Amino acid sequence: MAVKIREHRGAWWLFIDYHGRRKAKRVGIGKSGKKAAELAATRILAKLVEGDLSVLEPPAPAVPTFAAYAEQWLSAVAAVRCQPSTLEQYRVRVRLRLLPHFGPLPLNAVTRERIKAMLAAEVKAGLHRHRKHPATTTEPVAASTLRHALFTLCTILNSAVEDGLIPSNPAARFGRIAKTSGSEVAQVEVFRPAELRAVLEVAARDFPAMHPLILTLARTGLRLGEAIALQWGDIDLGQRTILVRRSRRRGQTRITKNGKARRVDMSRQLCEVLSGWRTLQEAEAAVDGRELPAGVFPSIEQGTDDQDGFRRDWTTILRRADVRYRKPHTLRHTFASMLIQAGEPLTYVQQQLGHHSAAFTLAVYGHLIPRADHRAVDSLDDVTTPNPAATEARPRQHTMPSGR
User: What confidence category does residue 78 fall into, taking pLDDT thresholds of 50, 70 and 90?
Assistant: First the structure.
């Protein structure tokens, strides 16, 4: 064990040798550097004698704050792996749920105790923060909202573990989140038949260029991005089917949400409307001396703010139809509910919607399954109700034995 002082090119250095572990450290220059080196050598030697080997360890890397690392993760990791809509959801969860609790903390200061405190604070607040107006409180926070926030936190911290910034993920294996004052299962909203009819009539009358798209959403259950990305090569008017294999959002076309293509059946009404829509596009192309556009809805598909443009017209259509505003995604829920109310199997609804399993479809739309038929439970009465036609049991008559 030794700590030696040497001068090299005007600078003073310490050379530490402890049981084969060596390290060189520059201290200073000139006379002051020599004095500093001698003092440092004495202190380092004392630490080594006491068993303190920290001087031989490499300096620990600076741990970024949660806010800085979360932004880095959103920009580098999530932006590559996720669909734009999913990335937007991550950003909202980070901004509304995570940054208020963990933003200024170093990553290694995010502990299980602090995560529990975050969940308790969110449940105690019990109110949902609006995206654009965080101060606005409208409804109790749902347990699913907290689960999604915890999942996002766990994913970010997993990435930090992979980068060597923290030794383990404190949000892993956290267990079930306690129920909140909100409903555990969110009830999906749908249009009533009269409302849907009014919406389609206004679209056909006042927005003829939008009507085929809205009818496509209402009769197929496609997501808005999937419908905007449709091309004529995806549509088989003879077989009345649509091949859904891509989605479009904010000017970018990607694969569908679950990464799998699916075939969707078309109703007769939709097939006739799309056939007329194609004929109109062919006529306009012939007049302009160009080819038929590949996209079914080119005026929307070619824009960089495709869905935003649709939503502006959608709001106007609902207002003119005197229908309370709901998101365009409500057409997808309405499609599913109409199939279920018609008695179609859940597996068929699942295939049309592109869900990964029938169990997921059941979890979302199971409450819509008709329950008015009581024959199944009535049949149990035959098992438990006494049969009135059966011979009633009579008390046994005791007879005296005859004498001999």
Answer: low
- Higher pLDDT: 386 or 220? It is 220
> Among 340, 343, 344, which residue's Cα sits nearest to residue 365?
340
Whether 224 contacts 307, CB under 8 Å: yes
Residues 6+ positions from 112 with CB-CB distance below 8 Å: 170, 171, 174
Helix/strand/coil (H, E, C) string of 178-206?
CCCCCCCCCCCCCCCHHHHHHHHHHHHHH
Would you identify the CATH topology of the domain 193-367?
A: hpI Integrase; Chain A (1.10.443)
pLDDT value of residue 178: 43
The predicted structure's pLDDT at residue 391: 53
Q: b/e for 51-78, b at 16 or more Cβ within 10 A? A: eeeebeeeeeeebbbbbebbeebbeebb
Specify whether the CB–CB gap between 205 and 342 falls below 8 A. Answer: no
**Edge to edge, what strands does the sheet with 235-236 contain?**
235-236, 241-244, 262-265
Task: Please name every residue paired with 356 in a beta bridge, in sequence order, or none if there are none.
Answer: none
Nearest to 118 by CA among 100, 94, 145, 139: 100
DSSP designation for 295: B
Say if residues 156 and 73 touch (Cβ distance below 8 Å). yes
More confident residue, 367 or 89: 89
The fraction of the chain above a pLDDT of 70, given in percent, is 78
Sign of the dihedral defined by the CA atoms of residues 47, 52, 53, 55, in that order: negative
- Of the two residues 84 and 280, the one the predictor is more confident about is 280
Encoded amino acid at 14, one letter: L
Query: Mean pLDDT over residues 6-25, rounded?
Result: 78
- As a whole number of angstroms, the distance between CA 24 and CA 16 comes to 6
Site of tokens 């995560």: 115
DSSP state for residue 57 in the 8-state scheme: S
For the stretch 301-330, pLDDT in tens is 555 445 667 888 999 999 999 999 999 999
146: phi then psi, degrees, rounded to nearest 5:
-70, -35
Q: Is 264 exposed, middle or buried (0-12, 13-18, 19+ CB in 10 A)?
A: buried
Q: Where are the domains of the chain?
A: 2-56, 66-162, 193-367
Average pLDDT on 184-192 reads 72
- Confidence band, pLDDT 50/70/90 cuts, at residue 133: very low
